Amino acid sequence: MKDLTCDVALVGAGVMSATLATLLSSLDPSLKLVIIERQPEPAQESSNAWNNAGTGHAGMCELNYSVEQPDGSVDVSKAVRINEQFQVSRQLWASLVTAGVIADPSSFINPTAHMSFITGAPGVRYMRTRYETMIANPLYSTMKFSDDLGQIEQWAPLLARGRTPSQPIACTWDPEGTDVNFGSLTTQLLAWLQSRGAVLECDHEVTGLQRQADGTWVLQAKGRTGADGLVVRASRLFVGAGGYALSLLQKAHLPEVRGIGLFPISGKFLVTNAPDVVAQHGAKVYGQAEVGAPPMSVPHLDARVIDGEKWVLFGPFAGQSITFLKHGSIWDAPRMVRPHNLIPMLQVAIDNFGLLNYLGQQILASKTKQYNQLRAFYPQADPSQWHMTVAGQRAQVIKVGPNGRGSLEFGTETIFAANDTVAAVLGASPGASTAVPIMLAVLKRVFADRMDGWEPKLRELIPTWGTPLSDDADLAQRTRERTADILKITRPTA
């Protein structure tokens, strides 16, 4: 058994762990960090470019972040909050590029217009109201609206060509959007961390987690392909292991996870790199979710850049897997069940029958139905140019809500435990896009005693940290332009 001692142990080598470790090493290079990953390489689960949509979530295109109210108004507060968070992520990434941590920003982030798309007269009215509400906010000053098919064709030819001219249609278009390869970002951050002395142990699965009398932690990990076992002793612990995180916290018998369960959702995408298709599509186009569909299943036609190659993805479609990780086990769910979380999970099943019915229909959907969904976005789609690929696995959090019943959560949840010596992240979208503000919140809880001393460096890395950009139009514009310049994000023209 290899025996390691460190200040912070991080379980899971995805974008969350890489972001937290990068912040810690930037703030205090003397900290000893150990990162443990069960796969042979880092960023093979949700952070992998093929396992997510790569959307730099900023609330520009995601209609589920801007909800129509009974009086016809549109609440954009969630969209604004997510945009604020994404601007924090962009600022840290820009600082890392300036410092030489990342040599070429185009290796992980590329300008890609974000569009919202809707059909039908009621949808057009909603889209116009949403646009008028959002354009008043400094963070959406570059957004444009159109219900003219000719203008929409200029923005997204695939979306408009072949469509019935009499069909009511509306879109918003924002050149501020980006496509992000979180897998590439993660591996580059981890390489930099290793150059500074951080230890990355891949092919090791954590099987034991115990808190010692002095408050420190001991982790036991087995080698998965013949590697030696591992024992790690740490003062602080972060678990960024996706759907595997809850199992680890349960092993430690932490009371903070009582009543918490997980609901697995698998995804698939239709993909193409046909030259005539990718040459005509340079945007991320999001529509509306079907009734009963989970928020992360909102259909979208995405322009992607993955390892330097252009692709177009459409989906997601629900998959059949019941594991908590893409490379997980069918025993994940049974092993998670405890007496304290069984009733909340049963209540979620009863209260979300529509969701279960939707997922069942998706799993059983024929290829014809799947391509009909694609043609709702891309009327002239040729099925011979597309193939299906399995995307990442999501494990949504189930917890007891204010009404005492189990509640299914669709965002990103952070759990703090054991006097804030442990932090863990569960859930999904907007997840990776907001990794930086999520990890800053982890720092404030887990390293509360050091935050005052770290504040000057944090403000150097993230100049507007703690200042809402939506309250200051000039600051918002200067910040977006500065990070766009450093990250080489050249806005597409309308």
Commentary on this structure:
- The strands form four sheets. A nine-stranded mixed sheet has the order 7-8-6-15-16-17-14-18-19, sandwiched between helices. Strands 1, 2, 10, 11, 12, 13, 20 and 21 form an eight-stranded mixed sheet that branches. Strands 3-4 form a two-stranded antiparallel ribbon.
- The chain has 494 residues and is of the alpha+beta class.
- It has 15 helices and 21 strands.
- The relative contact order is 0.18.
Oligomer: single chain
Shape: globular
- Spatial sequence of strands, sheet with the most strands: 7-8-6-15-16-17-14-18-19
Q: Strand fraction band?
A: 25-35%
Helix content: 25-40%
Low-pLDDT stretches: none
Report, as a whole number of angstroms, the end-to-end distance.
59 Å
Largest sheet: 9 strands, mixed
**Which value, in Å, is the CA radius of gyration?**
22 Å
The total count of helices amounts to 15
Mean pLDDT across the residues is: 93
Q: What is the total tally of β strands? A: 21
Secondary-structure-derived class: alpha+beta
